[in-house]
Amino acid sequence: MACLHANGWGFYAHRLINYQAVFLLPPEMMVLYKPNINFLAEHAVDADKRRYIVEAEASRHYIDLDRYGNFPFDSLPKVWDSAVAKFGEDTLTAHGIVPWHVQAMMSRLTKAFADRNQQQILKLSADIGHYISDAHVPLHACSNYNGQQTNQQGIHAFWESRIPELLAETEFDLWLGTSAYIDKPGTFIWNIVLQSAAAADTVLQMEASLSNKISPDQKFAFEERLGKISRQYSSYFSRQYNNALQGMVERRLRQSMFAVASYWYTAWVNAGKPNLQNLNNTEPTATETADYEALNKAWQSGKMLGREH
Fold first, then answer.
1. What is the number of domains present in the chain?
2. Mind listing the pLDDT tens digit for each residue in 9-18?
3. Distance between CA atoms of 93 and 98, rounded to whole angstroms?
4. Which pTM value belongs to this model?
5. Which of 80, 84, 138, 226 is deepest in the core (most CB within 10 A)?
6. What is the domain range of residue 104?
7. In terms of C-beta distances under 8 Å and separation of at least 24 residues, what long-range contacts does 146-151 make, across chains too?
8. CATH number for the domain including 271?
């Protein structure tokens, strides 16, 4: 089977999440986000592209909670400074820091709103959307992130890329209501990763159970993916797996969209609800444009640094 990098939700789903999240925003935010919806969708994957030039980037996308004991992982302090004091920064980084990084990104986005810096608002909105979405992926919350410990290599991209690409546009209901203010963003993101960790065993066990019942020639097939014919998990097996999970992928997609929009909204409110029709830095500078071009070049021609997770 063709190897698929485990890039969070996969490029398709990350773009879809940021795109759909825009429609959950109030009119006061829509005036900025709707005209820039394609930017937010396209740059939803910049965080994954940075993994080709920044080695420290990888740990910002996951947290191996099972390294800290059993659910609900009470041995791990949820406050960064307390966690560092107990385990050390090197250990925390080695096992992933996504819930803490989301909080850091939230502070940066709030400042960008307060500074009325349009380019930073858009860039940071795209980026935080990526990390929040990654936190919703069950295999981003356990050390067996690609089934490598249970002879299930490839399950990561199967769950987060193959299923959404096959079913999102035709079978999933991805229209939600509106975003909501998050009173405690730190608690909110920790609840998300705990939900992901609780679902990780089901993700692995359901695939293993189906694989024992379905023959390899039904499990894999040469089918079209992103405009190319390749050997991959068959449509039949993918639908059987999605049914066995009882809609988990769809639920986590929907929850990702709501969470992304709600973090955007909360940052805007916390910054004092600035008028988004009267901002500074409305066009990217030459440096910002060059940075985007360098990122794309590194991604297209480079090698991923750090863990593929």
1. 1
2. 679 999 999 9
3. 10
4. 0.94
5. 138
6. 11-301
7. 146/6, 146/308, 146/309, 147/204, 147/207, 150/204, 150/208
8. 1.10.575.10
